[in-house]
Structure formats: C-alpha cells, structure tokens
Amino acid sequence: MKKIKNTVCLFAIVCLTACTNNHSVLEKYGIVNDGKTINTKALQKAIDDCSLHGGGVVSLTEGEYLTGTLVLKENVTLHVEKGAVISGSRDMADYPDKGRRKALIFAENVKNISLSGEGEINGNGASFTQENNAPDRPTLILLLDCEKVAVNGIKMTNSGFWTFRFVRCDGVNIRQVSVEGHANWNNDGFDIESKNVIIADCVLDTDDDAICFKSEDPDYVVENVTVENCRLASNCNFIKFGTASAGGFRHIKVSHCTLEKCSRSLFRFWEKQVPGVTDSITGIAGIALEVVDGGFMEDITISDIVMEDVQTPVFIRLGKRKVSDNTYLKDFLIENITASSVSFVASSITGVPGLRVENGVIRNIDLKLKAGGKVADVHLKVPEAEAAYPENRMFDVMLPAYGFYLRHAGNILFDNIQLSTTGGKEERPAVFAEDVDGLTIRNSSLQSPDSDLPVVYLKSCKNYIYE
C-alpha cells in the first residue's frame, strides 16, 4: 500500500478570528461561551469570514459554546482549545438537513479543512429519540466529498447518532482523537467511506461499532486506508467492514490495535441473546468482514491485534441480501492475532451457494475460546440465511465447531494457529468445514474435543491438507 501524505494547507493570511486577544473576537461576533446562549449564527459568521479572507484558524478558548449545525469552509481550521466545549443544541430545529443526515459539524465539497485542539465536541445525544435506527438524529461530524481533511487531538462525545462519518472524501488524516459514544443507539465511532485515509493513535469507546468501513455508493470504492495503533472498545463490532457494501473495499490495512471491554453498556443485554455470554458489556466480533449488499472486498490485511471480552474473534460473511455483477470477497490476510472469547459462538468464514469466500490466509493466531458445545450442536442444521443481517448469531445455532466454521469457501490457509478452550468441556471439533474446495491447515495446534469427534470435521470438501 502506498504511503499517504496528507497535510492541510493553511494560508499565511491570518483570518479575523485568529486574534491574540480572543475576548475581542467573542465581542466582535457576539459569541457567548456560557453554555446557555445559542451561538450558531455568530460562530458560523466567524468561520465564513475566516474563509473569505483566505483561510486560517478559528480558535475557541475555554468555555462552553452552545450551537446548532456549523458548516466548515475551505482553508479553515476550527481549533478547540483545552477546556473549550462545542456543545450541541438539544433542539432539533437547530439542525437543518445536510446531505443524508443532520449533523453538528458539517462540510461538503470543500478542501483544506481541519479540526484540532485538546477540547471537546459534545453532541448531547441523550436529548434525542433513544431507539435503534430512529430517524432524524444528528451525527456529530459529517463530511461529504471533501479533500485534504485533518483532525487532530479532538475529543468527540455523546453523539445523537453516528459520531464521525466521512463520505467520498479524498485525503483524510485523523490522529490522537478520542471518541466516547454511549449517549444513544447507533453510536458508531468512525464510519469510513473514503479513500487515502490514515487513522492513527486514537482511542474509541463506543456502544455501536468502533471502526466501521461502509460502502453505500455503488460507483465509489473505499480504498487505500490505514488504521494503526488504536485502542478500541465496543459493545458491537470492533473492526467492521459493512454491512453497506454496494461499491467495494480494497487496499485496506488495520494493524497494531488493542480491542478491549467498554466502559459501560446502556442498551445491550447480550447475556440474554448470545449463548455463553454472562456479561452485558462485551463486543460481538473483533474482526468482521462483510459483503452482503453487492459490491466486493479484496486486498484486506488485519494484523497485530490483541482482543479481549469479545464474543467471536473473527466473522467473515459473503451473503445475498443484495447482489451486483461484481459481488465477491477474496484475498484477505489476518495474522498475528491473540484473542479470548466470552461466548460459545465460533468464528466463521461463510459464503452462500453460488458465492464463495476465496483466497484467505489466517496465520499466527492464538485463540482461547469459551467451552460449552455439545455433540448435538455438531449435528444441527446450520441454515444458509442468505438474506439475513450479518452477525455472529445470524444462524440461530452455536455452530458445529468451537474454533472455526467454514462453508462455501475456497483456498483457505490456516498457518500456525493455536485453538484451545477454557472454562469446561467442549465436545465440538476445532474446525468444521462444509463445501470447501481447498483447505490447508499446517504448523498448528488444535485442542481435541472432549468427545469421539475428530479435531477437524469435513463435510463435502475437497483438496484438504492437514500437516
């Protein structure tokens, strides 16, 4: 993957709001940082004037700035200093529709924009309808079709919907950002539908997916993305591709991340829904690669990941909710993974009849998996669920393996994998493969089941090597 260079250009002309005496700036624009006075028009005027004068920095000092939607303009940096809070209005009338969603911070078709500082952007998301997928709630930050975007150091909290979404942007550099998203349903961390993106050294603690790659535009490919050195906590999926996949994903690398327990869970009760789970604070899948709405996925690398408090370490799904002429999932590498699971639901790599997951390598992984499966689970029919929402529990059974369940796949290599169980007896095999053409397991240690079943169970498979 090519190295991405992304620097936001700030013109030498100093804009009106970047004065050494910030108090005069507040007076000039009538900005009141008392957390009670709505400042939308005043703050927007400051941003507009800055852009009109060639660009520069709009800096907010300590205090709380209550506002509705702010629109970022070309060549402007919105700098939120330590102790400063951009506080989202609790009145929906202060959020006009922008693109497909309302947002507190919005930009469209502009270049050279940035957010920086040690301050906070707080969406006050608990003020809005608290219901899964409820409409007309504001995203915290929404960027559409922008170029050269930089975000550094900001704390993003309490969104009413997704936290930070950037769509069809080119050149996005996000560093040392923290996200806290437990105010409402659908509190994703970063929703990525862009190209030439770097995300590094960030900390995310979210109720919904932490890092989520989306591809809703069938004519746009999400590509050339690097995520590294991040700490992720989620009550849903930690690293997820999909469910939206109408366009495609390629040339994406996620590495050197730690996946861990969330700080809290206000909406999820997984212990009532997922076999083996006893704690409501747990993530669904550590790594989820999903192509279910058409489109494609290729050249994806996930490496050097440590995960805990996750129900299912790896979930890979090629499905048929929708299909397109170029629907496929192939050429992925998952390596250097250490994980412990808190459910009985195995990792899985599954396609559907007519669509195979192909050319995958999983190597250098050590999974310690919660024991509890029975021989009877191996003989249950696993439904195809071709059009179902993709998630680890989508098949309505625990799956017939404790380690990996494979179906409708080809050319899958497991190299140096360690699969073992903890916490009791486990009667299912380590690996169960059905309708797989090309499966190699080598240099691996697979704990035998506490039953007469083989450690690797094959059904209607060919070209199998175990060495």
Description of the structure:
It is a single chain. The protein is mainly beta. The protein has helices at 22-29, 40-52, 375-378; strands at residues 34-38, 56-60, 63-67, 70-71, 76-80, 84-88, 103-108, 111-116, 120-122, 139-144, 147-152, 155-157, 164-175, 178-181, 190-200, 203-206, 211-215, 221-228, 231-234, 239-245, 248-260, 283-293, 296-322, 328-341, 347-350, 357-370, 404-422, 431-442, 445-446, 456-459, 462-466. The chain has one domain (33-466): Pectate Lyase C-like (3 Solenoid), CATH 2.160.20. The chain has a 31-stranded parallel sheet that branches. The chain is elongated and about 80 Å long. The model is unreliable at 1-23 (pLDDT under 50).
Give the helix proportion (percent range).
Answer: under 10%
| Number of separate helices | 3
| Rg on CA atoms, Å | 24 Å
Here the CATH topology equals Pectate Lyase C-like
Count of β-strands: 31
CATH superfamily: Single-stranded right-handed beta-helix, Pectin lyase-like
Shape: elongated
Strand content: over 45%
Number of domains: 1
Write the CATH architecture name: 3 Solenoid
Q: Uncertain runs with pLDDT below 50, 5 residues or more? A: 1-23
Distance between the termini: 32 Å
State the major sheet: 31 strands, parallel
Average pLDDT reading: 93
Decide which structural class fits the backbone: mainly beta
The CATH first-level class comes to Mainly Beta
Q: What does the oligomeric state look like here?
A: single chain
